[in-house]
Amino acid sequence: MKKLGFNEGVYNICKSIPKGKVSTYKSIAEALGTKAYRAVGNALNKNPYKEVPCHRVVGSSGYLTGFAHGLRKKSEMLRKEGVKVKDNKFDLSRYLYKIKKRKFFGF
């Protein structure tokens, strides 16, 4: 298996999140074997791929956080996928997609 860089690992995991579900920066970092939660956000902020659904990654608190196109757009995109968002918050236990630990990179 080809080892990928950190950002590519983040993008691959993000692509696995199905429509109508979300994951957290923390969950993605943990799946990659790190605690670099902010680095996950930085990677997603620099996402060059249209097929990577960055809008499906949220804060562990159940609030929408960071999105290059703004929280209003993020909320709109999630609503279109069936995620009920109110005041930039949603029921994380209802929409959370559980990610299994993966080995995408090594450093």
- Average the pLDDT over all residues and give the rounded result: 88
According to CATH, what is the class?
Mainly Alpha
Helix content: 25-40%
Which series of helices and strands comes N to C? HEHHEHH
Uncertain spans, ≥5 residues at pLDDT below 50?
Answer: none
Q: Could you give me the name of the CATH homologous superfamily?
A: Winged helix-like DNA-binding domain superfamily/Winged helix DNA-binding domain
Helix- and strand-based class? mainly alpha
Instruction: Tell me which CATH architecture applies here.
Output: Orthogonal Bundle
The rounded distance between the terminal residues' Cα atoms is: 15 Å
Task: Describe the 3D structure.
With 107 residues, this protein is mainly alpha-helical. It has one domain: Arc Repressor Mutant, subunit A. 37% of the residues lie in helices and 4% in strands. It contains five helices and two strands. Strands 1-2 form a two-stranded parallel ribbon. Helix 2 (25-31) crosses helix 3 (37-45). It is globular and about 40 Å long. The two termini are 15 Å apart. The model has no long low-confidence stretch (mean pLDDT 88).
Map the helices and strands.
Elements: H1 6-15, E1 23-24, H2 25-31, H3 37-45, E2 57-58, H4 71-80, H5 92-95
Parallel strand pairs: 1-2
Helix pairs in contact: 2-3
Features:
Arc Repressor Mutant, subunit A; mainly alpha; globular; 2 strands; 5 helices
